[in-house]
Sequence to fold (299 residues):
Amino acid sequence: MAAATRATPTSSTMSMPDAARRHRYGELTWPEVAERAAEDPVCVIPVATLEDHGYHLPIDTDVRIAETLAEQAVLSRPDRSLLLPTVAHGYTPHHMDFPGSITIDWKTFVDGLLDIGRSLFHHGFRRILFVNGHGSNAPLVEMAARLLMVERPGTIAGAFWYLSSARSLELLERTRESERPGGMAHACELETSLYLAIRPDLVQMDRAVREIPEWGSEHVWMDWNDGPLAVRERWSAWSQSGVVGDATVATADKGRLWLARAVEEIGEYIDEVAARTPNAGTDHHDGARERLQGGEGRR
Fold:
């Protein structure tokens, strides 16, 4: 039997004329990943969950919206960003009274995001942007981003809840039709409109409802930005349909308008993370006593 030959890549096979145009991390070969890491792009990671979204929307609403927004934003910044696979399962124990919801323990969820970030940093990437599509993920995604930067000095990790910048909130306020507070919270005018703009064939608008709790408080309420006092009950204590808001006024036209703004917003965040200079900070333990005795830092 003839001895097997070992394939050795040549410079031509190692180059990646198409990889620069491929925006999805998972579609790169490992040599291409190494080349992309050397370009110092922003690794954009959609994060969401599977849970009830009323009678009219699929349980993948948060996932589909987050990954659509993230992908379109990456495509608008192909030279400075790379799209990672979506983290589809998040923290949603309060939705478990509704069939279909899948929740991940909060610590397991944070640890999973940390491991993704650590893996990327190990391969030479330095910049991460988490695109969060699920409200209850928000403090945990922000914690993961912060811990990654604390743990790995010289890196940047950011997280955000889409359509929450000043310009985005002004647009929503000017163009929404649902009442406030409460008309735009979950499976609502906003999420339904976005889904209509993305996959109208999966939206059952004839089953859309308006369901807004009687908040009975000036401090505790939900909308796209919630009230100042956080009191979180089981979702079934607030809603029988799964909707908190008014899905009946959703339209594809509003969805396209808000989607375009969300993509623009995420593009701005990609630019921000790409432009920031990582700052490793300074460890002040060494020489602290000498500096104190020398009077440094005294007012």
Remarks:
- The first helix runs from residue 11 to 14.
- Strands lie at 42-47, 81-83, 127-132, 156-161, 184-186, 210-211, 244-246.
- The CA atoms of residues 165 and 265 lie 8 Å apart.
